[in-house]
Amino acid sequence: MDSARLEVHNTSKTFGSARVLDRAELTVAPGEVHGLIGQNGSGKSTLIKILSGFHTPDGGAEIRFNGARLGPPMRPKRLADAGLTFVHQDLGLVPRLSVVENVRVGRLRHGRFSRRVRWQHEAALVAESLAFLGSDIDPWTPVAQLTLPQRGVVAIARALQGRDRERSCVVLDEATQNLPKEVLPEFYQIIRRLTAEGTSIVLVSHRLDEILDLTDRVTVLRDGRVVGGGIRTAESSEGELMELMLGYEVERDRIDRPDRDSSQPPALTCEDLFAGTLRSASFTVRRGEIVGVTGAVDAGHDELPYVIAGARPASAGRISVNDESLAARALDVARASRLGIALVPRDRSGEGLAMTLSLLENLTVPRIHGRRWRFWLGRSWQRREFSRAVELLGIVPPRPDLAAGQLSGGNQQKLLVSKWLLQNPAVLVLHEPTQAVDVGARRELLLALRRAADETGMAVLISSIEAEDLASVCDRVLVLDGGAVAHELAGELDADLILEKSFALAEPSAAS
Ligand SMILES: Nc1ncnc2c1ncn2[C@@H]1O[C@H](COP(=O)(O)OP(=O)(O)OP(=O)(O)O)[C@@H](O)[C@H]1O
């Protein structure tokens, strides 16, 4: 029998006194897609970071690749030479550098005598890798100018280069999280093409539909332990996997919402907004209402949260919150905040949280300034706010002094959402709020938004491509196309209908 492509044996990791990975085992066969799933904080990223050499495991671990011992220690150069490569959640690209520099870093070839890098040759190699992925991105483009899906393709091209197809393994750590729904089928085809050539894939994902569609087998982690090793996906179901991951069944009903009084005046009014891809976007969100905005790539829903919160300039239009109204062009973050608008951005690490500051500081610093409290009063207020956040969204571990960067991705997301939710803004605007959040916590997060809208009258606008989330929590969903509202869906919302409307609008333009 062929040896396994990747074997992880007896691998544990302890931070301080907390053992977050406990004797993990994982075996990936040649040419298979192997899913790695588990709830937030279950140890998936820790295991991947051990494989990539970022964390050193506790003693006793052994990692083998194509039958030979690879580590620990896991040396990055040795991993790449052996054919074990990674695409991390944050993609790990340097925005100010070009695509070619990002892809070829560490692999640039020099002329024999001149020692100069032959850039044209390097760019041709990169163009070839991109073409394999069905992309025609110009290798000289700075990464900063690329869309998120394009950045995803670049990160994958970097992981694939120079591989020996029949001996390599690519680890995709939540790499599909940044890709819009309509490019996913293409991405899945790439994965199938790779495995057909003999490459193995490890896929870490919170999307159980993706895991069931794409993987041959799956390994399930719970609280740092493997609770299901190499389960055949064809013989399993979403419900079974969910129960293994969480240890309980998740309710999937639509979240109850009170009957809306449609005569209520709007809390947020946007009139004829022009900004980036937005072209005359007009709509309202009433007090206590949750409105979803969605659409295909470049429809404008991605841009909207930032324009409303004054984080991106608008060229025309008006934005009003209750009785106060402003030309959108005059809006900046400070003015938006004075109007009562708060933003939960998509980019958690870049714009949302300060990763080196504590959970307590992240949660309360935006509000503690300006309060003329005595130090100790401020301190006890901070601790109370932290307890509220933990209660609201179940942040784990609930340690106020931990640095935000030491939380798992999903728990960072919960921290970010609670930071703004607890401020009780008049208008809360969120971009992909459930990203990286596991299936159980996702419902808790949506329920918390629903409660805030119902109990405090907060007007909530959610920009997302997660049709299921929008259908379960929103009062209305607006589907954007070409920067303006093309459809308004209300009443009994249905995820399939939301997707159908978004895609139906995307198709004609994709063909042109
Ligand atoms: N550098 C660190 N120091 C201390 N604790 C850490 C550190 N990195 C991770 N942890 C803890 O290890 C546990 C596992 O985290 P990990 O990121 O592996 O979870 P995960 O399964 O990838 O979660 P998610 O789905 O939310 O990304 C968490 O409790 C986290 O807070």
UniProtKB/TrEMBL annotation:
SMART domains membership: AAA (SM00382)
UniProtKB keywords: ATP-binding, Cell membrane, Membrane, Nucleotide-binding, Repeat, Sugar transport, Translocase, Transport
Keyword ATP-binding attached: yes
Entry's Gene Ontology molecular function annotations: ATP binding
Pfam family for this entry, one: ABC_tran
InterPro entries given in the database record: AAA+_ATPase, ABC_carbohydrate_import_ATPase, ABC_transporter-like_ATP-bd, ABC_transporter-like_CS, P-loop_NTPase
SUPFAM superfamilies hit by this protein: P-loop containing nucleoside triphosphate hydrolases (SSF52540)
Residue ranges of domain ABC transporter in the record: 6-248, 250-507
Classification via PROSITE patterns: ABC_TRANSPORTER_1, ABC_TRANSPORTER_2
Keyword Repeat listed: yes
Identification of the protein by name: Sugar ABC transporter ATP-binding protein
Organism: Rugosimonospora acidiphila
